[in-house]
Task: inverse folding
């Protein structure tokens, strides 16, 4: 099966769901989310069958010009699986969250307005999957916009909630601004090289010395910097992070989870694809690496230090997502090409995979606390160790993993980033990363402390619905399992 | 086989989570583990103890356990003995048995994993695994200022571990492997500039974990407020991880780098022995006194390490450090155990409130006396063997022609520490057990049978090693 069927099927699924949601008379809209999750699970299974043109050169479809825009390699497969898995989990989270959605959409008490909320993530998922395969700046841009525009709706979905609306406006304005930067940067790169194809750019700047028509290096680098502004917005890199805390806090919790995992990962895969030719060439490597290093250090410092005083857990997770972006950027700044044993692309992908497990697990818990305690601050977790010990234990594991405690998956990701930074002799960045990780211990343990050391405010225990409970259990066990045995993720990456 | 030893406490912890009877399971697992550890000590040369499962192919990381030398065996023995004593004597508050015994088991499993690991990754990881229950237990079930103490130890040890991690990753990067055996083989290739920096990172990282002066201020409040088994296991066993790491990694891999830091290290360890010693003398509460004394005694072990740095082929220094680690681990665990008994039977640890306890609780007084004597370093008890070896090791490089080297000067200054520990220990003993009985102590109940069994296990070990140190020294040959 040619790989692009995956995106086509995903979009078809999204449209079918929208239609069905409009015409099926049903008061409870939970089935839309379940159907979407099931559909995506089928597509997830199909990724194993998907092949690129190299696997079947004789087929007619292998010669289509589409493949100039669309790559299918191990990395693409990995990120398609990533996007699908993330979307499935977010949809399941949204199923339990729809009572809060219903309160702030059409008529309080009816779920009439919540159906689309379960269909839209499917479109975003298609965009993320396409981004994983981007070979061409124009195609990448279209995919990115598909994701971003879907998110404009998802963020502001609770339209009777001022916080959600405010978040939507902020995301819209800053998102549009970053899109402007991105397009402007792409234009500069096109002007300097005359092509939008990433392999083409790589070829051109790879033998720039030999060619008779020299490339304007300044113009090219200017373009790269502008594109990085646009992508930095997606990744949550300082100084393009200003939107994150407010938008994360205001958006519905499943959207926040989706933003902080799916959207961020899509930003990183696109950055990997985009920067690969520029980091392979002597002409541009130096300044690009310097730019990445500055971004990484600033992001690490800001994300971790600003997280320390937070009292709202959702906002804390927003800063934590910036902090993790810092570690990921550090892996990029310590660039090792794809052929290396410990390549930057692999480390970033591995880190993101573990980040998905930990972060979505935490968001599942947060969504339930929001539903049952009607609050999202750290104080709402007080005494969880007494009222629901298994849940508190799971959240402790997940938070410890986010902090990077060994024998959890989070540690291995951080460990590899540290290894890369040592290999690249980035001593100052390493010192900053050390401080950042130390600060991480502080603010994640603040929540653990609240759960175990503080007495609960109410005696009503937090009861998990079966769907959320299953997801949290699976994610927690996966975090522990991959902390001891990371080989499966690594094998998936090495395909 | 070794994997069994490490995984047994963790499996028992999981069994507790599934609802097994907490105390019985914990005692059973600890007793079984001690048996295994004793068997291991008799047959550690046998290759069937080694265990390795690859968890990552490239870069190669293995879940590997083994006994590279006798030091690991001694540490594993120490862990098994203290664990059994801790769970035997532990009295959980009602309704918290699972948490109480489960965390002790988890701590024990982490410590065993760290001491038995032959892969750098798991060496580090298991230690961190053991820290988590320490933090949580102090915060949940601690006494007094438990939250402040727990928070302090979390921050201190968290930061120390991260500094340590930076040093370890750097080492692994230079040697190109995570296998500690292969790392040692590649030891000669590390250039001096890198050695200097790595040595500094390791000294600060491991040093924080062992409460090297001036990174020691977490220790006393944490031990004072920790529940008894956690204090026993952390002060007795887990804290030795830092010293073990210095001996296992820093000394063979970055000897030249450590040489640069020898004199600062000597100053710091004198800070441990003398400064913290005087701080200990001025304590009014028994638990704080013991917490500080355990910081102080780390100074002697650092002195042995310094002697080893000053003279890398010093035949005594390594054994001295290990014997003293073992002896201190047993004696401090015994002290914390009996202190908990004192608090249980009298309700106070303020020395001013107590007195004449020996009349009501002769067994407790007798056992505490032995523990106090061990801590001072009375001949016949294990600590004496360790301390004498340390002092001898420090003078091993003395030739007479070159005069006294800094190590020897530090050694002479640190002998004063023996006097200091005699002062505070004897004073504490007098204040608590002797003199006329007061209200609190007149009707205090004496030790129960299980408490006696736990204390006896530790006391027998102290005497065995004290009277016949070759028990350990033969393992270390």
Result:
């Amino acid at each position: 099966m040619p790989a692009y069927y995956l995106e086509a099927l995903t979009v078809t699924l999204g449209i079918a769901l929208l239609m069905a949601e409009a015409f099926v008379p049903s008061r409870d809209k939970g089935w839309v989310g379940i159907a979407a999750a099931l559909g995506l699970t089928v597509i997830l299974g199909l990724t194993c069958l998907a092949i690129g043109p190299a696997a079947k050169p004789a087929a007619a479809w292998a010669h289509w010009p589409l493949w100039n825009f669309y790559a299918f390699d191990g990395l693409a497969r990995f990120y398609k699986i990533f996007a699908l898995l993330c979307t499935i989990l977010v949809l399941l989270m949204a199923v339990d969250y729809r009572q809060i959605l219903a309160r702030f959409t059409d008529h309080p008490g009816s779920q009439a307005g919540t159906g689309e909320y379960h269909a839209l993530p499917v479109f975003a998922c298609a965009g993320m999957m396409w981004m994983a395969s981007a070979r061409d700046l124009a195609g990448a841009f279209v995919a990115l916009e598909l994701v971003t525009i879907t998110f404009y709706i998802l963020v502001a979905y609770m339209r009777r909630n001022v916080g959600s609306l405010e978040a939507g406006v902020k995301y819209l304005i800053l998102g549009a601004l970053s899109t402007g930067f991105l397009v402007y940067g792409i234009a500069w790169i096109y002007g300097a090289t005359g092509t939008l194809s990433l392999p083409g750019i790589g070829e051109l700047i790879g033998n720039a010395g030999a060619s008779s028509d020299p490339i304007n290096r300044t113009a090219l680098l200017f373009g790269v910097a502008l594109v990085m502004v646009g992508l930095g917005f997606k990744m949550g890199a300082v100084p393009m992070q200003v939107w994150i805390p407010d938008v994360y806090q205001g958006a519905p919790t499943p959207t926040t989870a989706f933003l902080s995992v799916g959207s961020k990962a899509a930003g990183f895969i696109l950055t990997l694809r985009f920067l690969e030719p520029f980091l392979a060439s002597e002409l541009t490597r130096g300044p690009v690496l310097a730019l990445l290093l500055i971004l990484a250090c600033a992001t690490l410092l800001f994300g971790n230090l600003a997280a320390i005083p937070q009292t709202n857990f959702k906002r804390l997770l927003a800063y934590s997502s910036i902090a993790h972006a810092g570690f990921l950027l550090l892996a990029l700044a310590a660039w090792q090409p794809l052929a290396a044993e410990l390549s930057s692309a692999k480390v970033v992908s591995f880190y993101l995979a573990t980040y998905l497990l930990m972060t979505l697990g935490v968001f599942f818990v947060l969504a339930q606390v929001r539903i049952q305690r009607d609050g999202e601050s750290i104080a709402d977790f007080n005494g969880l160790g007494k009222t629901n010990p298994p849940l508190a234990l799971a959240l402790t594991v997940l938070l410890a993993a986010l902090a990077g405690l060994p024998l959890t998956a989070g540690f291995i990701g951080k460990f590899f980033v540290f290894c890369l930074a040592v290999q690249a002799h980035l001593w100052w960045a390493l010192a900053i990363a050390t401080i950042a990780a130390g600060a991480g211990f502080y603010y994640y343990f603040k929540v653990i402390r609240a759960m175990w050391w503080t007495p609960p405010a109410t005696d009503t225990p937090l009861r998990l619905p079966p769907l959320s409970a299953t997801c949290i259990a699976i994610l927690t066990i996966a975090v522990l399992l991959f902390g001891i045995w990371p080989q499966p993720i690594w094998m998936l990456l090495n395909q | 086989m070794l994997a069994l030893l490490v995984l047994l406490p963790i499996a028992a912890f999981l069994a507790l989570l599934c609802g097994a009877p907490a105390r019985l399971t914990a005692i059973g697992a600890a007793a079984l583990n001690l048996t295994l550890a004793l068997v291991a000590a008799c047959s550690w040369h046998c290759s069937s103890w080694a265990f390795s499962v690859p968890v990552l192919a490239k870069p190669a990381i293995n879940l590997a356990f083994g006994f590279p030398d006798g030091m690991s065996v001694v540490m594993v023995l120490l862990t098994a003995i203290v664990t059994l004593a801790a769970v035997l004597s532990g009295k959980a508050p009602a309704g918290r048995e699972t948490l109480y015994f489960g965390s002790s088991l988890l701590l024990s499993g982490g410590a065993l994993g760290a001491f038995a690991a032959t892969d750098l990754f798991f060496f580090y990881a298991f230690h961190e695994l053991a820290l988590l229950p320490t933090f949580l237990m102090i915060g949940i079930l601690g006494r007094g200022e438990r939250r402040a103490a727990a928070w302090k130890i979390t921050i201190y040890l968290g930061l120390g571990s991260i500094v340590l991690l930076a040093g370890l990753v750097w080492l692994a990067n230079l040697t190109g492997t995570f296998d500690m055996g292969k790392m040692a083989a590649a030891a000669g290739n590390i250039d001096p500039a890198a050695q200097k920096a790595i040595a500094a990172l390791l000294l600060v990282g491991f040093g924080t974990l062992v409460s090297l002066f001036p990174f020691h201020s977490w220790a006393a409040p944490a031990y004072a407020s920790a529940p008894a088994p956690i204090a026993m296991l952390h002060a007795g066993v887990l804290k030795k991880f830092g010293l073990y790491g210095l001996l296992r990694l820093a000394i063979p891999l970055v000897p030249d780098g450590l040489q640069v830091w020898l004199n600062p290290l000597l100053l710091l360890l004198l800070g441990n022995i003398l400064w913290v010693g005087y701080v200990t003398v001025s304590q009014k509460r028994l638990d704080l006194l013991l917490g500080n004394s355990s910081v102080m005694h780390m100074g002697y072990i650092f002195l042995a390490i310094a002697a080893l740095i000053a003279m890398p082929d010093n035949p005594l220094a390594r054994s001295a450090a290990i014997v003293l680690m073992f002896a201190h681990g047993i004696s401090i665990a015994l002290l914390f155990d009996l202190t908990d008994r004192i608090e249980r039977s009298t309700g106070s640890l303020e020395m001013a409130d107590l007195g004449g306890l020996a009349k009501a609780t002769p067994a407790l007084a007798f056992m505490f006396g032995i523990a106090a004597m061990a801590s001072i370093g009375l001949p016949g008890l294990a600590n004496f063997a360790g301390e004498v070896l340390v002092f001898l090791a420090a003078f091993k490089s003395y030739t007479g022609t070159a005069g006294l080297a800094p190590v020897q000067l530090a050694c002479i200054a640190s002998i004063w520490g023996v006097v200091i520990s005699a002062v505070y220990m004897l004073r504490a003993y007098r204040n608590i057990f002797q003199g006329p009985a007061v209200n609190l102590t007149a009707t205090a109940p004496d030790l129960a049978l299980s408490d006696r069994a736990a204390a006896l296990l530790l006391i027998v070990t102290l005497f065995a090693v004290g009277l016949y140190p070759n028990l350990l020294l033969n393992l270390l040959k």
About this structure: The mean pLDDT of chain B is 89. The beta strands of chain B are 51-56, 61-65.
